[in-house]
Each structure stands twice: as structure tokens, then as C-alpha cells.
Specification:
Structural class: mainly alpha
Keywords: Membrane, Transmembrane, Transmembrane helix
InterPro entries: PAP2/HPO, PAP2/HPO_sf
Largest sheet: none
Number of domains: 1
Distance between the termini: 64 Å
Oligomer: single chain
Protein name: Phosphoesterase
Radius of gyration: 20 Å
Length: about 325
């Protein structure tokens, strides 16, 4: 399907990027971390586990729905990359033009940032960033004002998108598509989750506690279904890297739906004494899933377990309390 999105899709941005001072490009290389998958899912998990009612009327429902929305966004990215299968800009292939004034450790970091493989359309960072920061702005509806939340989320998403062009791993069209897909997926996910602001609910429910009606089950399942489509396209086209990404998308969507089944939605914040060991366990599973990417079955199992544990964790303290009470 490369005819729909041309491999040579630049609009002259390369010459503008080449004129940027080296220090500016280094700053953009740091900004791009704000939409790294590990950072986004870590941020979303922290909000899901620890947010209180000062941020949302139903913080567990809000946080889980944000995770589901971003999972859908990554599933859409995997499908798009496998479908269009167009390369990144030549600058992403290397060799990297590392500023000579960077110390050794930062030189290695910078080189890792400005070199990237895989397909280029749409930008995963732009898609994930737009989805995550828009979702956070919409579900944590008691923080600041709606205007401030949307401006802040939009500013971060645009900065991330610009950073991907500045470090020459994407064209402008890639990040614009990512921003559009990320924003659209979030709105669709919130609609599926039952957000009264998008479902035409009563004025009272839209104004007072829209997150109280959220149920992330359908967005999680949609992410798994879209990822199945991405997997089918990737297998048919022989795109090995996208097969792994699609598999992880299936596992993440399925794991989220499974984990949510044990959560009531009105649980309090997770105690730190439980969150810290849980983070170690789920983080280990997540790292293992990527480390064993060559063994797809193991990757799927580890990812499903990790995501299910993250989503189910708010229900754990009450269950531990019940077990302790039963023993007494």
C-alpha cells in the first residue's frame, strides 16, 4: 500500500532542520522521551494507581480508560505502519552526526535517539503522545480548568511531534498523521467507555462527574482487535518487527480487559507498600517481554500478565484484607 503514502514524502523540512543549532537538536532529542512507550505507560500507571478525587470523580476509572485509549493508539500505529510500510527519512539510518562537545555517555544516548529503524508512517511517538496527553487532560477533569489542561496536553504533544522531525527520524506528514490519529483514537475510546460528554448524557453528568460512568473494557478489547488486524497484515507482508509490536498490542489489550474484571472502579489509591513490589514484578515482566521478543508466545504471555497485574492492582489491598480477616 506504499502508493497511498509515498516513500519520498518530505516537504522540504530537512533543509530547515539542518539549519537548527546543534544544542536545539539535543534538546529535542531529550523532549522525544516524553512519548517513549515506557515513559507514557509508566506515567499512566502512576496516575491510575495514585490519583485521588481531587483529579477525577472516579480516578481508577479515569486512569484505566486513559491506559486503554493509549493502548488503542499504539494498536492503530502498528496497523498503519504494517499497512503503509514506508521508510523513515534517510537521516534515521545513520551514521549519526553527534555533536563533538557532548561527553561520551551523552554521545551514546544522543546517537540512540537520532537513529531509528522500522517504518515511518504514522509516527508512533506523535500518536502515543497525542493520545496520552489528550487522554490525561480529558479524564482528570478536576485538575486546573479544561482550557489549561488541553493547552498543556496539546503543547506537550506538539513538542514531541516537532522533536521527531528535528532529530530527523520522521517527516512532517508522519507526525501530523500521528497527532490526528492519536486525538481521534482518544475521542473514540472515551465514547466507547461511555463518557457522557461524548454520548450526549445529561448536563448534570457532563458537568459534575463524567468519569464516574467510564468503563475501559471496550477500548481495551478494541485495541486487541485492531492489533490482530495489524498482526495479520504484518505476517502477510513479512514485516517481522511489526509482528512483534502487533503481538504486544494484542496482549496489552487483552491484559487490560482481564485486569479490569477484578476492579470495581471505586477503589482508593494503591498503598505505596503494595505499589513498590508490584512495580518491580510488573516491570520485570515487561522488560522480559521485550527481551524475549524473538519468542512471540513468551512475549505475549509476559505482556498479558504484566498489564493484567497493573490494571488489577487497585483491587489487591481489599482482597488481601479479606484474606487476613478470614484467617483471623
Amino acid at each position: 500500500m506504499t502508493g497511498l503514502v509515498g516513500a519520498e514524502r518530505g516537504i522540504g523540512e530537512t533543509s530547515l532542520v539542518d539549519a537548527l543549532p546543534e544544542a536545539v537538536v539535543v534538546v529535542f532529542a531529550a523532549v522525544t522521551h516524553l512519548a517513549d512507550p515506557w515513559f507514557l505507560f509508566g506515567l499512566l500507571a502512576v496516575g491510575y494507581w495514585f490519583a485521588g478525587d481531587r483529579l477525577a470523580a472516579a480516578p481508577r476509572r479515569a486512569g484505566a480508560t486513559a491506559i486503554a485509549a493509549v493502548t488503542c493508539a499504539y494498536a492503530a500505529t502498528a496497523l498503519g505502519k504494517a499497512w503503509f510500510a514506508v521508510p523513515r527519512p534517510p537521516g534515521a539510518v545513520g551514521p549519526a552526526d553527534v555533536p563533538t562537545w557532548l561527553p561520551g555517555l551523552l554521545s551514546a544516548w544522543y546517537e540512540a535517539q537520532v537513529l531509528s529503524d522500522g517504518f515511518g508512517f504514522p509516527s508512533g511517538h506523535a500518536t502515543g503522545g497525542a493520545a496520552a496527553y489528550l487522554a490525561l487532560a480529558l479524564v482528570y477533569d478536576r485538575a486546573w480548568t479544561a482550557r489549561k489542561r488541553l493547552l498543556a496536553g496539546g503543547a506537550v504533544a506538539v513538542a514531541v511531534a516537532a522533536s521527531r522531525v528535528a532529530i530527523e527520524v520522521h517527516y512532517v506528514v508522519d507526525v501530523l498523521a500521528g497527532l490526528a490519529v492519536g486525538g481521534g483514537v482518544v475521542l473514540g475510546s472515551l465514547w466507547l467507555a461511555g463518557d457522557p460528554r461524548l454520548r450526549g448524557g445529561s448536563a448534570a453528568s457532563r458537568a459534575s462527574s463524567p468519569t464516574a460512568a467510564l468503563d475501559p473494557t471496550l477500548p481495551f478489547l478494541l485495541a486487541a482487535i485492531v492489533s490482530v488486524g495489524a498482526l495479520a497484515v504484518a505476517v502477510a507482508s513479512g514485516h517481522t518487527g511489526e509482528v512483534v509490536e502487533a503481538g504486544i498490542g494484542i496482549a496489552t489489550g487483552a491484559g487490560g480487559a482481564i485486569g479490569w474484571r477484578v476492579v470495581g472502579g471505586d477503589e482508593p489509591a494503591v498503598p505505596v507498600r503494595i505499589a513498590v513490589p508490584a512495580l518491580a514484578v510488573t516491570g520485570g515482566l515487561w522488560v522480559g517481554a521485550y527481551a524475549l521478543a524473538g519468542t512471540l508466545g513468551v512475549t505475549l504471555a509476559a505482556t498479558t500478565a504484566a498489564v493484567a497485574a497493573v490494571v488489577a492492582l487497585p483491587a489487591l489491598p481489599e482482597r488481601i484484607g479479606r484474606l487476613s480477616g478470614a484467617r483471623d
